[in-house]
Every structure is written in C-alpha cells, then in structure tokens.
Amino acid sequence: MNVERLVLGALDTNCFLVSDGKGGPLIVVDPAGDDAELLAAIGTRPVEAVVLTHGHFDHLGAVRSVMTAAGAPLFVHEADAHAITSAEGSGGAIFGFDYTAPAADRLLVDGDVVQAGGLRLAVIHTPGHTPGSICLFGEGHLMSGDTLFAGSVGRTDFPGGDARAMQRSIGLLANLPDETRVYCGHGPDTTIGRERRVNPFFPRA
After folding, report:
1. Of the candidates 138, 132, 147, the residue with the CA atom closest to the CA atom of residue 21
2. Among 21, 86, 133, 140, which residue carries the largest CB count within 10 Å?
3. Beta strand 181-184 with 119-125: parallel, antiparallel or unpaired?
C-alpha cells in the first residue's frame, strides 16, 4: 500500500492519494482544494474513486475538478450525502466558503469495501464529528478524517456533531492494533498505540 499526502485548501486539510503500491489506480481521499496542485500530483494515473471521510466544505473543494479530469465516481457515507451538495449543508456558508460537491455516485455504509487494483479499504462508520463520518482501514493503515487526530479528536460542537457518538467511535478505533498507522484529516500522522498512551479521549482500562 502506498500513501501520498498533500496539504490543501484554506484550512490545511490532508488529502491522500492511496494505491496498492504496485502501479494500480488511485483512491483520492478528501480532495480539499488547490485544484491545480492536486491534479498535477495525480498526473496521468487513473483514479478509481474519490472518497470523502465526511461532508464538510474543507474536505471537498477540489472534488469536481478531480471527478472531471479523471472520470472518477464520488463516494460518501449515506448520512452525509445531503450535506455535500450545498454550502449550508457542508458548513462552508458560515465561514464564507461556497464549496459544494455533486451528488455522490455511491453511498457508503459501515462494512463496505472501497477497492482500487489490489487495494481494499474497509469503511468504518465513526459518527461524532458529523453523522456520516467514516474511517478507511486496510493493511495496517487508517485514514481517520476528522474523527481522530494526533492527541485529540474532531470537534463535536458543529451542527450534526455528537460528543457521545464520538466517544463510541473512538472506542471502536481503540480496538485496532497499536501499530496501525493513522493518517489524520489535519495535522501529523500518528499510531493507535501512541494515541492509546497520550490521547485523553481514548478509553482507559
């Protein structure tokens, strides 16, 4: 598995280009903005899917550009599907951003698998930051979106946020192996083992 990170958009969102490491097509996770930079990084490589970890505006600014350039479908969890098509739903309107995405081609649910070449990423539904927040897990790697950060978790005080749901979601992630590499929606990478030691939101034995 190969993971490339780009920091994009007004809020320095992490976008990931993920592949099987054997020349297979890409999965683009959270194409946040800076369209030209992102398209240059993708180059001529095929894109199997564009996946949003949740429906907030700062994770979808370049969705249309990637979909148009690569002819790729858009995947999002069913509970956030309504949010991405309007600036009000995505939260952008509050901050003066009008970013939206087209209606998703595939609505994800917990346990689904997103596949590209030899790569298979399992969908883990992790509500809390938004109702439809997801993580993608495969081969010891976790794309956590804004559910889990290094030393913290995503905010739950935005519309649709739910602190109790976030607590349950972090409990699910705490069951993953310590060596799991976590690629967060903002900020640096971490591991589940590190978060188990230092993250105050992780369950304590």
Report:
1. 138
2. 133
3. unpaired
CA–CA separation, 155 vs 107, rounded Å?
Answer: 24
CATH class of the region 2-198: alpha beta
What is the rounded CA–CA span in Å between residue 81 and residue 89? 10
Question: Phi-psi region for residue 12, left (φ > 0), alpha (ψ -120 to 50) or beta?
Answer: left
Q: Please give the single-letter amino acid code of residue 185.
A: G
Q: Which two tokens stand for residue 108?
A: 């994800």
Closest Cα partner for 59 from 189, 185, 188, 183? Answer: 185
Question: Tell me: the pLDDT tens digits for 100-109?
Answer: 999 999 999 9
Alpha-carbon distance of 156 to 159, in angstroms, equals 8
The per-residue pLDDT for range 120-154, each reduced to its tens digit, is 999 999 999 999 999 999 999 999 999 999 999 99
